[in-house]
Structure formats: C-alpha cells, structure tokens
Amino acid sequence: MTISELKSMVLGLSPEERAELASDLLLSLDNLSEQEIEHLWLEEASRRDAEIDAGTAKLIPGDQVFAQARTRLK
Predict the structure, then answer these.
(1) Is the pTM of this model over 0.85?
(2) Number of domains in the chain
(3) Which domain holds residue 49?
C-alpha cells in the first residue's frame, strides 16, 4: 500500500476516527530515539537545502523574520 492509498483510506474515516489516529501518530513520534530524530532533522535540512538550490524556496530576510516575531509576541 502506498502513502497515497493510505491517505485516501484514512480520509474516508469519520472525523472522530481521524482525530484519534492523528493523536496516536503524534504520540508515536514522542518515542523516537535520538538517532531517529537526528536522522529526520538531517533529511529535512537536506530537503530544504535542495529547495534553496532549486530556487523553489521562499526566502525571507532574517530582520523581517525577527520583526514579525516581535510583532506577534506583543
């Protein structure tokens, strides 16, 4: 079964069943080892780097990011 097939099947569940499944899936991430977490972060960093190299990432200047964060924290 592919991820796409699984997603289609899960989206056919009731909202309550989807919420329960989502909760269980999120809780399962709490049980990852440090090595698994590091591996996932490295994959994410590589994906983001590839997007930057391909020109598909939306880059925001750091000063703008910090200004937006300060505004939200007020």
Answers:
(1) no
(2) 1
(3) 3-73
DSSP-assigned letters across all residues of 26-65: HHHHTT--HHHHHHHHHHHHHHHHHHHHHT-S----HHHH
Question: For residue 42, what pLDDT band results from cuts at 50, 70 and 90?
Answer: very high
Closest CA to 57 of 40, 44, 69: 44
Q: How far apart are CA 44 and CA 48, in angstroms?
A: 6
Give the model's pLDDT for residue 16: 97
Give the Cα separation of 71 and 45 in Å (integer).
27
Query: What b-and-e string marks burial along 2-39, b requiring 16 or more CB atoms within 10 Å of the CB?
Result: eeeeeeeeeeeeeeeeeeeeeeeeeeeeeeeeeeeeee
